[in-house]
Specification:
globular; about 70% helix; DUF5333 domain-containing protein; single chain
């Protein structure tokens, strides 16, 4: 999933536009909406990569990542702070671990395509954030 979060970071960095330079009180990694949103996108991407019958909703995912960036900007984070967060290797590894744990808790077994498909279909049926990002 390292590739997954590398792609997510690149996609988020590509959406960086001019923003205010107000200083933020809390570390961006502690903003649940942003952190959890990135984890959900990573989970959806991983499912789509491991299950041949499920695809990522790419445009929906890009739009969602842009909304997370706008949320961070609205909270006063600068472009530099956002870029530092998404480029931080330790944070990428931490988020990757969380995403893997959440996928495992949902029933994913690494290397077992059927388990990714089952979890993906369930997420789609329940219209969770992860399911919303899949088809």
């Amino acid at each position: 999933m390292t590739k997954t979060f590398g792609l997510l970071a690149a996609a988020m960095l590509a959406t960086v536009a001019l923003a205010g330079n107000a200083s933020a009180q809390t570390a961006l990694k502690d903003v649940a909406k942003v952190r959890d949103g990135i984890i959900h996108v990573g989970m959806a991407y991983e499912i789509s990569e491991q299950c041949d019958s499920i695809r990522a909703r790419t445009l929906r995912g890009i739009g969602f990542l842009q909304s997370l960036k706008r949320h961070a900007e609205d909270l006063g984070y600068s472009d530099d702070q956002i870029a530092a967060y998404i480029d931080n290797r330790d944070e990428k590894k931490r988020l990757e671990g969380i995403a893997r744990s959440q996928l495992a808790a949902l029933g994913v077994v690494p290397g077992d395509m059927a388990s990714y498909c089952a979890v993906g279909r369930d997420q789609i049926a329940r219209n969770t954030r992860v399911g919303w990002l899949l088809r």
